[in-house]
Write a structure and sequence with these properties.
It comes from Phaseolus vulgaris (Kidney bean). Its main location: secreted. One of its GO terms (molecular function) is metal ion binding. Its cofactor is heme b; Ca(2+). Its EC number is 1.11.1.7. With 319 residues, the chain is mostly helical. The protein has a domain of 129 residues: Peroxidase, domain 2, CATH 1.10.420. It is 39% helix and 2% strand. The chain has a two-stranded antiparallel ribbon with strand order 1-2. α6 crosses α11 and α8 crosses α10. It starts with 34 loop residues before the first helix and ends in a 24-residue tail after the last helix. The N terminus is likely disordered.
């Protein structure tokens, strides 16, 4: 596939009502001292071949945490007798699984049954962001892997929502409006299939979209010429592979590809936040790190409710 699709950071543990395990920085210091180094090296290897893994890992981590919490349930493969979250519509185009597999294989050789798949995903996402130009941040670890992966539980905010309609999805997880605006900034290294924004290009188009961007997207998608295909478009048409605040500049210029992204710059609820992030990259990077730590702390499990998978794609006890 061609290439496509935080300053000193305050580190804290954000405990939600539905968070059961206590995370801490350096959780594997004594049990698997090289754990974070191993994950880093695996991510570096994949990134050197395909910079688009950053957007893929960000999306994968978000999709994992927004279902039952950050428990690695999105990584489970379906079998002949059991389905999984991978079969849910929003996850059909999820990618980055092979990176988690490679890190897990190495970690099982180094420290068997010690490092959870949920932690690997959180660490790999952090490392990929830094490799793309984002700020490195310490991440609390100690998550356990979940024992359930049910596609019926996958209920993620649609890219066609307004700001006020998308916000409840975030507040239900203990996240704020600022967290939502910040986390959507991860789209600065992402891309989307044309089907995710096709409605904005139909008829007379979307008046909130810059005409030049509309023309570009129409050419990329070529709906009439390729009716059975679903091409990809960068969500940040400026610095597509760099993790920076240019995404917010693009929204101010009405160059948002997804409806929800563009609405961030137009809605009075979020407009000032977008302007502040666009004006100061360091400010955005710091806020993004804190929002990612909060995201990664949602619904984490302890050893009573979860375990450490030996294979991130399968439960230890087949169901």
């Amino acid at each position: 596939m061609p290439k496509m699709m935080i300053t000193t950071i305050l580190v804290f543990i954000f405990v939600l009502p539905f968070t059961f395990a206590e995370l801490r920085v350096g959780f594997y210091t004594s049990t698997c001292p090289r754990a974070e180094r191993i994950v880093r090296e695996v991510v570096e290897s994949h990134f050197s071949k395909d910079e688009s893994i950053v957007g893929g890992l960000l999306r994968l981590h978000f999709h994992d945490c927004f279902v039952r919490g950050c428990d690695g349930s999105v990584l489970i493969d379906p079998t002949r007798t059991r389905t999984s979250e991978k079969k849910a519509g929003p996850n059909l185009t999820a990618r980055g699984f092979e990176i988690i597999d490679d890190a897990k294989t190495w970690l099982e050789q180094e420290c068997p049954s010690t490092v959870s798949c949920a932690d690997i995903l959180a660490l790999a996402t952090r490392d990929s962001v830094e490799l793309a130009g984002g700020k490195w941040y310490s991440i609390p670890t100690g998550r356990k892997d979940g024992l359930l992966s049910d596609p019926a539980l996958v209920n993620l905010p649609s890219p066609s929502l307004s700001v006020s309609d998308a916000l409840p999805f975030f507040t239900a997880k203990g996240l704020t409006l600022e967290d939502m605006v910040t986390l959507l900034g991860g789209h600065t290294v992402g891309f989307a299939h044309c089907s995710m924004f096709q409605n904005r290009l139909e008829g007379n188009g979307d008046p909130s979209m810059d005409p030049a961007l509309e023309q570009t997207l129409v050419q990329i998608c070529e709906f009439k010429k390729r009716p059975n295909s679903d091409p990809l478009a960068f969500l940040d048409q400026n610095t597509s592979f760099l993790f920076d605040n240019q995404f917010y500049h693009q929204m101010i210029l009405r160059r948002g590809v997804l409806h929800i992204d563009q609405q961030l710059a137009l809605d009075p609820l979020s407009r000032n936040m977008v302007q502040n992030f666009a004006a100061n990259d360091s400010f955005f990077q710091e806020k993004f790190a804190k929002a990612m730590i909060k995201l990664g702390s949602i619904g984490v499990l302890d050893s009573t409710d979860g375990d450490i998978r030996k294979n991130c794609r399968a439960f230890n006890i087949p169901l």
